[in-house]
């Protein structure tokens, strides 16, 4: 059976098909109350480093390089444990990766969803 891994904005309505809902941002979403997020987990340590996030600045023209750098970061010691935990979650249940980013198709959630889908 194929893994169901989706991503969307944390501000969107929840769905019964979401499976586990994981926030993959380093900082808490602006204006969102914790009880309104309906999260299973907040995995800050899987988010891009502050340096990479600031460099990227959500500029779509930088996305290809952001993706390359971010995938490299996921192998680093600071991200490895959280990345492995996310892989475990994806192997067992449906998974929805959440971000506050407006352009979700050019976000770490999109990169993670693609990366997880390729993992055995």
Task: Specify Rg, calculated over alpha carbons.
Answer: 13 Å
Q: How many DSSP H or I helices?
A: 5
Helix fraction by DSSP (H/I, runs of at least 4): 40-55%
**How many strands?**
4
Distance between the termini: 12 Å
The succession of helices and strands, N to C, reads EEHEHHHEH
Overall average pLDDT: 92
Strand line-up in the sheet with most strands: 1-4-2-3
**3D shape:** globular
Q: Strand-residue fraction?
A: 5-15%
Protein name: DUF488 family protein
Pfam families: DUF488-N3i
Task: Summarize the structure in short.
It is built from five helices and four strands. The chain is α/β, with parallel strands linked by helices.
Structure description:
The protein has about 120 residues and is α/β, with parallel strands linked by helices. It has one domain (about 5-120). Helix content is about 40%, strand content about 15%. It is built from five helices and four strands, in the order ββαβαααβα. It has helices spanning about 35, 50-55, 65-75, 75-90, 110-120, and strands at about 5-10, 20-25, 40, 95-100. It has a four-stranded parallel beta sheet with strand order 1-4-2-3, with helices on one face. Strand 2, helix 1 (about 35) and strand 3 form a beta-alpha-beta unit. The radius of gyration is 13 Å and the shape is globular.
Helix-strand blueprint:
Layout: E1 5-9, E2 20-23, H1 34-37, E3 41-42, H2 50-56, H3 63-73, H4 77-92, E4 95-99, H5 108-118
Parallel strand pairs: 1-4, 2-3, 2-4
Label this structure with key terms.
about 120 residues; alpha/beta; 4-stranded parallel β-sheet; 4 strands; about 40% helix; globular; DUF488 family protein; YeaO-like
């Amino acid at each position: 059976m194929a893994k169901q891994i989706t991503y969307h904005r944390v501000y969107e309505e929840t769905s019964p098909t979401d499976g586990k809902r994981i926030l993959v941002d380093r900082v808490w979403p602006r204006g969102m109350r914790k009880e309104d997020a309906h999260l299973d987990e907040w995995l800050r340590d899987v988010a891009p480093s502050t340096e990479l996030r600031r460099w990227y600045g959500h500029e779509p023209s930088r996305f290809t390089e952001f993706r390359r750098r971010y995938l490299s970061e996921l192998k680093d010691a600071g991200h490895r444990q959280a990345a492995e935990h996310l892989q475990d979650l994806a192997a067992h249940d449906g998974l929805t990766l959440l971000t506050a980013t407006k352009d979700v198709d050019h976000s770490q959630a999109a990169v993670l969803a693609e990366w997880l889908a390729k993992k055995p």
